[in-house]
Input
Amino acid sequence: MSTITISDGMKTKLEDIARHLNISKEEVIETALSIFEDAFKEEKQKDTKFKIANKIMKKASEELRSSNTRLAQRAKIIEEAKIDVFEVISHRWGIEI
Output
């Protein structure tokens, strides 16, 4: 077992939570750390899922562009646009790019 130093304000909050939940201060800290750890793991999984989805989308985009040169040219024009694509679309609604 070890001792940590916390501010008086943090100590008061910890004691209040423990009193309201009718549990020990140690249990409050364990619960808070568990919740934080679960949230951290969930965010890490979201990052991993996002990276996998991003790789799949890039691969699909490359395959589609290699098989359809007209689409590839349009996509290149949109990607290289200096102004916001949504601004262009809103001003040219109904006009083929």
User: Anything to note?
Assistant: The chain has four helices and no strands. Residues 81 and 88 are 9 Å apart (CA to CA).
